[in-house]
Every structure is written in structure tokens, then in C-alpha cells.
Fold these 3 entries.
Entry 1:
Amino acid sequence: MQKKLIAELIGTFILYPEIKEALREAKELLNKDDGTGSQVEQLNRRLFSISESWNSILTSRASWRTMSIEKLNFSYWDMAIGHTEEYMLKYEEDRMDVEGITYRIDTLNLFISEYEKYFESCLKSNTEISKDVNNKFFAVVESLIGAELTLVKMVENGENYDTNLLYNRKDRPNSETINDVNETNTDFEDIMEYTFHKGCIYNGWWNEVNENNVLLIETPFRFGLKHGVEKRFHENGTLKMEILYFNDKSVEILSEFDEDGKILTSTDKISEIEEEKNPNIYNSKEEGDELFLKNKDILNVFSGFTDIQRGNTKISVFISAVWQLINADGKITEEESAKFLVFAKNVSGQYLGSTDDKDDPVIAELLNDADKMIEVIKSYPKEELNSFWNTLFSFALVDNDFSVEEANFIGSIAGAVYENLSDDEVRGWMTDQINMQKDSGSKVSESFKNNLNNPITAKKSPPKQPKKKPRKYKIYIFLILLLLIFGACYLFFLNKVDNFKSLILPTIERNELVDKDAEKNKWESKFRKDYPRFQSPIHLLVPKVSSVPKWSLHVACL
């Protein structure tokens, strides 16, 4: 549909070049620095001109970023991974492909180019860059990193894309090459994990040299992050190693050489890294981080969570599942209410940290996502998972009425957790669990017993009444019958027409012949009456026209 719309627009521009020219002039006017309004206002107008909807989304992400960075101590990588998780989930559900993610990358780069125009203007006018603009810019950059990481993972899953394109360099503001003698340059500053140079995000080549002006390290930066191939050199100036960085994460040591330029073996490489013990090889700014390649596959629900957050999340999901269960049938009995109060009190005592940790807004946000709650349940150890199921079934049976809604709720969770089980196997598993609960004296309602033989209505969310799909095949049958009836009527009509012609036309022709014979007899009788002397047939008396002159015929008639 989008391709068709684009084609129509292109066709419009070809047919109406004046429209194309008007749009071009309007865009130039919009992007023109006409001196009206501040530089930030002009930036906002240009961002709005790219896409109103995308601009709103990125502004919303910037607001969330402020709270996440300041209150939750999230890193830029945590923010980027969040976008990757979202994209990969869509990819696994066939709602995202390489074309879709590259479209997002292209769109994000359009926004980045407008921010860089603002940075360039501030550098030229020696104007301080707005902190709010920086925050919005970083929100776009982190979205871009998340999309680029998604492409890397898609390629690992067999998709076709040249990941070298992710390292292509282009002209950006503040992109000069700077030689830093033994890292003594004080114009560099790390702000929110991004490297700035003289108050602006750094996009150039940083070269560390010694006091003899010998190049030791050559590092490419993009958006204040190491991105691309970093080269390190021995004191004699020969190449020591090449390291590939992806947005400040070390991906791979591409090559290593000794002082004589000889390529080191894999065994020598390991010893060389251990001898250097330089944390920058593993991570540019966060000590103790592992290689990016070892971590990039850990895209799970707990990405960026602390140990306290992980433990409290498991407890919160447990309580939330029980609460949803007793509400599944739309009513809470006295038995369910009393048991839940005791259960919640006991489980709440297992929360870690302070009251603020218990009321963590990140956990509260996670509880709004059914898919993420399922992932948390999947992370339970075997004993905890068994306790989880026993608790759910005991609550379902506490009021001696295991309703259909409660059964479907438990079945939906079980079907999502045990994805390899069929619906029949899930029902069999539930029957076994119910039998285990019989010793407690709980009773199962007849409605549920009857429902055990019916399919479970949902797997990952509470069941909804299925909508009846229209039976299209009935419509098709009706149309076919209508066509057959019409065709039969048409053929019958043609047959009747033919019969009509066979009956009517001979009669008309016969009547015409009779009339002609009557006319002939009439005139022949009149002729004989008027000319009695001519009693012989007329054709014997009148000579042939070819043998008689015209004037002789005229005389004879007289």
C-alpha cells in the first residue's frame, strides 16, 4: 500500500512539476535560518517538518529517558537494548523485517542530521548547546543504536544485510582529528557516558601520541562513542592491534602484531590481552564490562535490572498472577479474599531492599505487559515454578468452585510457559494438578468438568469470547447458484426464441405467398375478362424483349 502511494505521488510530481517546485521552495523556506525565533525554535520547526508522528514519539522517548537516567540510573546501553528487545519481539512475530528496520534507521538519521545542523550553528556562533536538546538528541541516538543492533541480530539469524554499512563515516559537526599527548587534553569531557569536546558531542578521530609525537592509539568516535576500527601501535610505531567497536562496545579484536609486524597466533593474542590488562579493550568507559559479543544475545526481560529488581519482579509477578486468578470469574468470594490477604502478607515479606525498591516504577511498568510477565514466570527455578502452580490451583479451589474462567486463566499461562505442549497435553496436565488437590477436600464444579474436553480459549492472556467469523463459503454457494439459475434462464430464453422463429416465420411467409397468388389470380382474371381474345397463356403471346424493338412493344400494347 505504501509503495502504491509513493508511486502515485511520484506520478503526481511528474504530471505537475509546479507542485514539486512549490514543495521544494516550501522546504527551503522552512529550513532557512531567517533570523526569526531562536535556534532551538528553528530546530523544532525542522524536526516537525520531517514527520509529526515520529517527532512526537521521539519527544516522548526523551521524557522517559530523563526519568530513567536520573531516577533509575539507566545507561545509554540500557535504553538502546530496550528498543532492540521491542524490535526483536516484532521480528520473531513476523511483524518486522530488514526493510522495516532500515526504514527506521533512515528516518532516525534524518532527525539526527537536523540536530547536527543545530550543533554546527551553535559552534559557529559560540552558543551554548541546550541541555534539553542534548537529551532529545541522545534519545534519538539510543533509538538508532537499538535499531542497528537489531540488524546485527537479524543477520545472525540468516537475514541478508551488509553490516559494514553500519560503520560508514560521514561529515559531522566537531569531527576534527585531535592529537592528545598522553591523554592530557582537558577539552574532553564525558557527560552521560558520551564524550564531548569543548561542550559539543565529539565525532572525530582521537589520536593518543607520546611526548615524542609517536602515535599510540587512533580511535574513531561517532555521537561521542567509539564506533569503528580502533588501531593501537607499539612504541616503535608499528601496528599492534585492530579492535572493532560498536557504539562504545568492543566487538572483536581483528588482528594483532608483534613489534616486528608479525601476526600473532590465537594463543599469543590471549596472552597479549592478559599482559596489557587495559580495560579499554573490553569497554571504553565502564570497568568490568564483558565483550559486547558475549552480551548482545542476552536480550531478556531483565536486561539492565539489578539483582534487587530481578528478585522483586519475580515476587510482584507471582502476586499479580494470583490476584488476576481470583478476579477471573468477575467475583471474589470471602474464602478467596481471606486467603489472599494471608498470602500477600507472607510473600511481601520476601521483598528486597527498601520501600522504594518495593514500589519500583520499572517493575510496575513491566506488570502491564502480559508477554513480559510470562517471561518472568519462565525464569522461575523448578521449585519456585512448582510452588507457583500449586498456589494457583489451591486458590482456584479454595471456594470449592473451580470455574471455567479460572481454568482458562491457568491454562493460558501454562500454554505460554510450556510452549511445546499441545492444548490436549495442557488439559491433561491440569487434570493431574486437580487430582493432586483433591486431598485438600476441594471440589470442582460440574461446569469445569464438562469444559475439560473443550479447547482452552487463550494461551498468553485472559480468554475473550471468540468472535464468530462470517461463513463466506455460504455467500459463494449462493452466488454460484444465482449464476446457474441465470444461465439456465438465459439458455431457456434463447431456446424459446428459436422455437418462436420456427413457428412464426414459416406462417408469415406462407401467408405472404397466398396473398401474392391471390393478387396474381386477380389480375390474370381481370386481364382475360378485358381481353377475351387472348385465351392462351400470356407468356406465349408476348414475344421476348431481347428479339423485339422497344417501339414495336409500344405499338403492340396500343
Note: The CA atoms of residues 511 and 517 lie 10 Å apart.
Entry 2:
Amino acid sequence: MNRMNKKKKTRAIEEERKRALHDLLIALALLMAFTVLNIAISLLRGFYAFVTAYYSPPTTETLISLAFLLMFVLSWLTYRRWRESSQIITELEGIISNINPDVLLVVDPDRTITRCNSSIEKVFGYEVDEVLGQKTSLLYGDRRVNKTQHHEIYDVLERQGFHIGEAMGKRKDGTLIHIEVITGKLASRTGAVVLLRDISVRKRLEAELLQSQKLEAIGRLAGGVAHDFNNLITVIAGFAKLIRKRTVSSDPWRPDLEEILKATERATGLTQQLLAFGRGQILNLKVVNLNEVISNINKLLCRLIGEDVELVTIPEENLGYVKVDVTQIEQVLFNLTLNARDAMPKGGKIVIKTSNTKLDSKDYVAFEVIDNGMGMTEEAKKHLFEPFFTTRQERSGVGLGLATCYGIIKQNQGQIFVSSQPNQGTTFNVCLPRVEAPKEKPEEPKEPEELPRGSESVLLVEDEPMVRELAGRVLRDQGYQVIEAANGPEALKLLEKNPKMDTRLLLTDVVMPLMGGLELAQKFRDLRPELRVLFMSGYIDDARVRYGVLDERVEFLPKPFSPESLAVKVREVLDR
């Protein structure tokens, strides 16, 4: 009721002003007409006196008439100038009111809005008449904060003449928006001019940029840690397997060795998770059918989710093929399924569904993980793929599962989407680029009964001493002659000192200080084109290098590797 009375009072004041201005203009027009009439009569009289007494000295009446003539000319020029200025001011007001996307307000010292442009409708959803006579707090999200800051703002205005700040605005429908507030003091009268600019898009872009920078920094950190961790796992698992080869099953130390090897397998899984999050993992790409991948791990998924959760798979017939790292896709399925189970503490149903789909007119193969659990809020979905973010109340997880899934899918050139509402379940949709079906299925390699041996000379380049010692020992045990170097420049110096060195194979790490493995291999091949090269690494931080080492013409041994895999791969490369 008070608001309606204020509106009526404001409109009544405006109408009274218009009537007063109209009466004033009429009075001025009558006064000007009367003045012009008097001037005309005086001019005629003066002209007559001037003609009748042409050679006589000018009389007082003549001078008065000439003065009236001069006043008339000056008045007319002033009127024309005032009229031109009024037109310019009117045009500028129209431009500011209709073209400017920002909201312009004129407010009294008590924060009452007296004037407003039409942009208020687009930014805040109010009509102009709805805000006239209202307090500026109508447009702010937190009115208490606005009252508290009001006096501080006007103190700054008194000292500097303007004030710039940010606040939360509130639209007519209750939606909160970020606004920039620029307040300027009126020089001609009390009050201020306030400019309100919607900066919600800018704030969102700033937040996305900050988030991407955080993810990049954490990804680099995770990749660096995983790189060192991979070397440690290689050493621990490698020497443990060497010891196991020298023991019999009845040895009392055998169970302890087996536990060490199991721990290294779990550590390897954690390392792969970190590398997937940092997108530094070496991809072992294969053309596969997702229905087969899901079928192979279906029993394991059932054991993981427990008996109170039903798992249903709905495979698409004639499903297309994708080129992915199978281990990574299995990890995504594990993480999404476990995440769905945690959303159903009292039990429920999980559906894994595959389909052929299109994104931006391109063919994709998709799989969905659907649950009927508690769902998520919009705020939770905004932070869903951030590292260390978790919605579990018991904090039983570290919050890397979904962040890892996001990294894996992006590394495999795919897309991941989520759809969820509170108490209405959640659907994760993963889309991977579709490729042509393989012409023939390759045969799975069989493990040899005995490790292959050799007598060739191998140049081993590895910056980690423990890994270098392990690899050198394994190869020497198999009969090879091993020459070791800690980095690329040291290996080149060995070649310069022994130009006739009969080296058949260069076994080098990819990521090393001073000189990387790819650069080193290129320098060696320029000198010895017949030299065979075998790369080894567990982390590659450059996309060009990452996919370069997986070229069909390049031999690669991923870390962590076992003594068996090293011996088999070296023999395989030398025999080609």
C-alpha cells in the first residue's frame, strides 16, 4: 500500500510540474508578444523621427528606438542558440536512454530514484514506472549490506566525486546477478547519478579461467609426482620379481614378496589415475567395441556395487567402434559405477546403456551410467569435475574419481555430460569419436616360457639411477652388453669417444633433463641410421611427444615395466 501511495504521489508531482511549466511558457509567450509590439511601435516612431530630421542631430527618442532594435536582435539570436542547445540535449538524452545497455539512475540523497532509462527493463525486468519513487535497495540482492555501505559511498562521493564498486543485483523475478555500480555526484544539485552494469557473463568467464588454471596447475603437479612414482614402482616391483625368481614357493619369504608385488600393482593403479587426471598418461590405443569392454568387467562391477544394488546393461545392437585405451575406459566405468552406488545408500538400480549418437554432425559412440539415487543440486554440478570435490557426507572419498574421468575422456578426444536433479537420480553420458571397424582382430601375444637372451650391445640412457641399475642388471643377466649413460649429452660424449662402438640398440627414457629421448634418438640416427631405438616412459607432458612415441614406426615400453616385459621387448626390437 505504501508503495502504491508513493507511485501516486510521484506521478502527481510530475503532472503538477508539467502544468506549471505549461503555464510559465504561456506567460513568457504573452510577455514576449507584448514586448515585440512595444519594440515595433518604438521603431516606427524612431524611424519617422529620423526621416523628418535627417540632417538634424539624433534625438533621445531616436536613440531609444535604436537601442530597442539592438535588444531585439540580441534576443532573437539568444533564442535561436537556446533552441539549438535544447535540441542537442534532447537528442543526447534519447541516445543515453535508448542505446546505452547500462542502467542509468538519478537518485536523491535519500536514495529515491527520480529518473531512469529504459535499460532497466532488460537488465532487471522492471518497467520504468515501477522503479520511479522507489529506493535503490529494490535493485540489490542484499538490502542490509546496501544500507550499511550507503554512508561510506556518499563519504567517498563528497571527497572524490565518484565511487566504483561491485554488488549483487536482484531482478524482478528474484534472480541474482553480478553488477558493477558507478556512482557520480551531481554538480548542479544534491543527489547522484548511478550506473548499473550487468557483469554476470564477465564474472562467469573469470571463474572459468581461474578454474582452468587451477586444473592445469594441479594436473602438472599430479603428472610430475606420478612420473617419479612410476620410477619407484618400476624399481620396487622389478627387484622384487628378481628375488622371487631365485626363491621357491616353499620359501618363508615368498608370501612377503607376493604382498610387495600386490602393493606395487595397487600403486600402479593409483599412478595411472594421477596421470589420467593430468592427461600425461601414455595411451595404448586400440579399436574396440564398448559392448565387449562392458561385458568383460560386468562381473567385477557386480561385486563392487554389492548385493543391494541391481546392475542392468542395455547394449546397442550394431554398436560402432571406438579407438581408446581400454584400461582407461574401464577405469571410467569403475569410477562412475561406484559413484552411482554411493548415491544410493539404501540400494537401487544402475543401468549401463550403449548407443550410437551424433554431436555437431559427427558420429560418436556413447555409454550412459544411470542411477535412481539422491541426485545433485545445480551448485554441486558446477563443481562436479573439480579435483578433491566430493558430495559424500562421510568424506569416504578423496574427490579425484570424477576429475579423473574428465581427464581420461578429454585425453581420448571425447565428451562427458551430466544430468541430475535432487531426488531424481543422475545420468552420466560419455561420448567417444566413432571409427571404422578393424579389418581383422589381432592375436593376443603369448608369454614365453623362458626369457629370450642375446649378446648384442645396448646403450641404456636413463636419468633415474635406480631404474638404470635395474634395467642394466636385467639385460646383463640375459647376456647383453650394456653401456649406461645418465642423460643425452653423456650418451653423445660416449659415442664421440668411441666412434666405432658397436651399439645395436638405443634404450632411452623419453622425459629427461638437458635432452629428451626423441631428440637424442634423432641425433643418433643421423650418425647411425641402422640403429634400433626403444623408448620407455610413464609420463609425457607434451602432446606432440605423447602421440609421437606411439607412432607405428616407434617402439615403446611403458613404465612401470617388469623384468620379463623388458627382456621380451628388447629381443623383439632387435629381431625386426
Note: Residues 393-399, 541-548 have pLDDT under 50 and may be disordered.
Entry 3:
Amino acid sequence: MLKKIAITVFFCTSFLYGWSQPKPDSVQLKRLIRLCELWGKVKYFHPYLSYKPIDWDSALIQTIPKVKAAQTSSEYARAIDEMLGMLHDPATYVIREPQTSWPLSLPGEAHPKVYNYDEEILVIEMTDYSDLSNLEETERRLKEVKSKMVNKKAVVFDIRKLTKDGFTWGSLEYYLRRGGLIPVLCPSNLQYSGQRYRVNYGALTAAPSGGFYQAGFLTLISPSPNYQSEGATMPLVFLVNDHTEIPAFVLALQKAGKAAIISEGNVTDEKLVKKSMVDLGESYMANVRVGEVIFADGTVGFAPDVFIGPYTKYEEALQFAIHYAESVTSGKVMMRPSAKPASILPYGKPDKKYEEMKFPPEEYRLLAAFRIWNMIEYFFPFKDLMDKKWSQVLPQFIPKFQRASSEKDYNFTVAEMVACLQDSHGAFTGISALTSIYGKSIPPLLIRMIQHKPVVYKVAHDSITQKYGVRVGDEILKVDGENAVDRIKRFLPYLSYSTPDVGERSAGSLLLTGVLNSEALLEVRNGDGVIRNVKLPRSSTSEALLPLRARTTEVVKELENQIGYIDMDRLKEDQLEEVKALLGKVKSVILDMRGYPVSGAPYQVSSWLSPNVNARVEVPVTLSKGEGFEVMRHRKYQYPTSNPNPNRKLQFNIPSAVLINEFTASAAENFAIEMDQSPNTTIVGSNSSGADGAVSIFFIPGGLPVIFTAADYTYEDGRQLQRVGVIPDIYTKPTLKGFRKGKDEVLEKAIAFLKTKRSK
């Protein structure tokens, strides 16, 4: 009995202990998530990475094993700090408790302390910042400086911060201003410094969409104070340490060659620039530089004129500063700070593709996950439209990238992660992954989903039907022994699609894929319900069969009852005169945009038929000026980009019907948006693709392209398009019965509508 009790107690204790202590894998995962967030923040906002030769990929690759191996929080923090150290930036680091030993008190009278060193040099000590909080006394003492500066050849300001107190940043300059000292020290035209920040107008990648996106610096110069200089011209020397608040006017004086800054210890620009705090977890934070000091003439950066010490005695550094001032007054030292021209952000600093790594090592697989996550985090305009929060994607996929054991696993994991975007522009990645595994070859025929069933839509030529017995209208029941609908469902998790119809469309296009010259074993059912088995060689590719997708009817023609018809997919510029003639004689027109235009001619046609309307485009503009980051929406009218009819006169005031479906994608949707805003237009068919807007393409290890919509195109009034599509006024889709009879039911619906509309 006692033995049973002991076992029970041990089991319960172990059970409770297991729940109270985090599993090592969960700790590692949280650390990798934080690493990803930090790495991306630095990648897109730290100014050094825009112009310095820093291999930030390599920094990550070296850090991942250290983070995984860390047994304690301090080891984890040290690994992160070592990665940040590769930036060689004093303003970017893991925050630790300061090691500086602060004096408990300072000798002498309260500060500011003003006295003559000799007849030529005036000394002002302001090292006990806590004394300055007595504003009335501080003002009184500083006003004494004016009278004491008469006939002085130099003034030394000791503004080292030597006491630990709650001094508010920015107060030192405020006190000096309140004391009336700045107009005495500064010329009227003194120009203050500012900050510059990296700004990204969309995702500038190695393969941007037509140069649509841009990157650069936002420069904010602080306004100089408006005062009348009181004419003091003597040299000024400021003694600082790494706790000093260096006032803005001191930087400006140094830049103008009217002051020297002496640093006790290694004073950098760390306290002068804007930084962003990044939570590393486990009670650690990281400071990340997001700004740089910049002056009105375009030069950047700050450095003291002289570095000294640090000294063990309070007076030693001050004595050096006084002697330096004497050297200046005697002409032995000239105050001429060096100027460093501002670096310009290069156009598109492309990521390495690592094309040779078809199956990358784990560190590079995680690099792929980190690239994808951060690119979408900062530049995807539709995170709020995703079913799953993007923040939840990273903890789900880091383990999947780690566990990938082959090229196939890796490709599928990439495709599955991109599928979370639910963006039809991202479908290419999934299709690439699937075809890389199953093969790119298909039999010489096309499949289309009709009423959620895969149906033979076209065959390459009549001999295929004669030889293999497969016919247009046959429903495909099985492929290589697998149920066709199940096969389509199996593909869907690896495809990114904005709407269910587009998902079916993309998966259906992959239904018959396989290895070149292999046989596709198909079970098909014809219109009479007869089921049969056929075998076809996979001898073609989807690219080779693209011409089959196009309609074969006339591009421009007149239908019954003076209704015109224009195939907007195939319309070219040299056919515009024919279109103009057609529009001049018909009483209504059908514009067939069930596909993608091959030219810009459709936008000319829209200018003849629609009023002065446009699509609206908003591009995420990311900028960090401190805590977190801002995402603004830059708005402008984008289409028509080049309109031969700029006045957009209603030259042809006739009713029109625009035909759309799930193949109406991207630029085709923009045409549909424009026409949909015309009072004379009726949209007929089914929802369009729901992914309109310029794309961005970036690459991950293995040379795999990742595509996503990086600009948000909407109606002019802001109505949503992404994940919805253009919504038809008259909803209709083909039926299997009608298709087998050779009917174009969508076209027929449009013709019937235009007849009715004209008869009213």
C-alpha cells in the first residue's frame, strides 16, 4: 500500500512539475520568435543596413545555433548581443544594468557653479544635475555668466553628469535657455541638427513591380530657435561623459566651428539618436537605432573633438578641458570638426537567393521563414483581412521549417506559409512547390472547374479525342486512382488564394500534373453518365497550353440586336479603330474580361465608355521614429497610367455589360473596377479574383520566389477588393449541362439583359 502511495505521489509531483516548468522546446521557440522580430526590425529600420557593407544574413546564421544552444537567459541575451555587435553600432545593444559607479556626492557649492579660472577663461560646472531642479536659483546663477563673460577669451562648460538622479531628458538645454545664456553663446543664424530615418514606400525588392516601390531616408531637421544673438564670439569648450545630455545648440556650435566637445570616456551618438525598444523576453530588451544625426548641410554623425580618460579623479578631466581652451585661445588648436557626407540609400539592396541550396541547412531554412514573416509584417497591406493573425503564423511555422527533412518538405512548408496570406497573387509559390514535386507535365488538355467539378474544358487538337477517347465536357472522377475532388482538396493548403473560386481554379489547374512522359490514368464520366477509363501521356506543360485558354471567337464583332462584343483579353492597340467604329454603330456593348489583358488597349476603351473615375491605390509606407513602427497608407490615383483620352469624355454614351469571373485577376480587375463605377455599366458573371494591385517578389534560400500583393487597389470610394473581388450586378456561372451543350451562359445572360435594358 505504501509503495502505491509513493508511486502516486511521484506521478502527481512529476505531472505538476511538467506543467509548471516550460518545456525546453517551447523556450527555444519563443527565443527564435523574438530573434526573428529583432532581426527584421534591424533589417528594415536600422540606417546602417541601407549603406554599410554588413552581411545581416550571416549575422543571423551565426546566431541561430547560439540561441538554440543557450541554457540560461544570460547565454541567450549574450548571443543576441553578439549579433547586434556585428553592426558596430554603440546605439544598438541588449540592455543590461549599467556598470558605472556613481559618486554619492560632489565637493563644493551647489551647481551651476560659475568662477574664473584666470583672467581669460571662465568655468561653469554643471555636473550635479539634481541641483538644477531649483529653477529660480539656476536662472540666477546662469544670469551671472553674462557679466562674468566680459573680456574672457574662452568659456569651459563642465556638463558631465556625475550623479544618478531622475533628471528629465531635454532639461539641460531648457535651463540654459531659461537662464538667457543661449543667445549669448550662439549666433542668430545657427542651424540645429536633426534626425534622418529609413522609410520604405512599399517593398523594394530585387524584383519590384515596374519600379513601383521606393526606399530612402526621411530627414527631419529641428527648427533653430528664434532669438537675437547678443554677440559673444569667444571659443567654447564642453566637457561631457557618457551620461551627459548634449544640448542641441552644442552640436550646432560644434558643427559651426565655434565650440569643441571633449569626451571623458567613449562618448558616442548613442544618446543623441532615436532608438526603438524590442522585447526579447526573459526580462531582456534591446535598443535598436532607427535614427542618425544629420545637419542642414547633409552631413551626418557626431564625434567629440577629443577623447580623454576616463580619469579616477573628478578634477583631472576638467583641468584637461581648461588647458585645451588655453590652447585654442593661443592658436595652437583650431576648432574645425570633420564633416562626413550623408550616405545615400542604394536602389534595391537585393537579398541573396542562395540558389545552390535546393534543400538548405536548418539555419537557412529559418532565414527563409524570417524573411517571409518580416516582409509580410511590414509590407503586406492586408494583414487585417487574413483569417489567422500573422503573429500566430511564426510560432506555427518555425518548428515546421526546422523539421523539414527534404527539398520536398521545405518547398511544401514555404508554400503552406505563403498560403496563410490568402492572396491570389501568392499562388505562384504554391504552384511552383507542387509542380516541383509532382512534375510540371500534363496531358494535352485543359481542366476547368464547373459547379465544383473538374471538367475537360479544351483539348489540344481533335486527334487527342480520336486517339484517347477523352472529350470536352467529360467530368474527371479520378486521377491515377485518386478521387479528383479529394486530390484538389489535398492541394489547397499549399495554395494562396483570395476567394474559394480562385482556390478551386488553381488546384484544378494542377489536377493532372505529373512527371514528363508518364501516363495519366483518368476515370471520366460523359454527359450520358457513362464512366470509362482513359490513359493519356503527360507530354505538355501549362505554359505550352496557354494559347488554349484564349477564346477563339472574333475579338471585335457585332452580335444580334445591335449589341457589340469586344474580347478585352485579346484586344490590342492596333484594333482600337475597329472598336471605335463598332461603338459608333451599336446601341450597347459587351466587354468580355474573363481573363487577363494582353495590352493596355482595354483602358482606352474604358475611357470612351466610363466617366472620370479611377481605381485608388494605397501603398504601405513603413517608418520607425522611436517606439514601434508606423505604417501609413500613401494614397494616389494609379490607373489609367497612360490614357490617350485624358479628358475622358463620354464619347459613346451607350449601355455596357462587363463579363467577369475568377479568371479576372489583377490588372483585369482594375479595368472592371473602373467600368463598374460607370452608371451605364452592368457587371455580369461571378466574383473576380480578389487580388488587384502591384506585386512584390522576393527570394528565399533555394532561389524560391515569394510573391504577394504589396499595394492595395480599391474602388475610388474605398470599397474593398482584396479577398472579395469585383461583385457582379447579375450573378451567374456556367453549368455543366449548359457547357456540354456548347452554351456560353454568362454571355447569354448579358445579351438578354442588354435587350431588356434597351427596351425600357
Note: The mean pLDDT is 85.
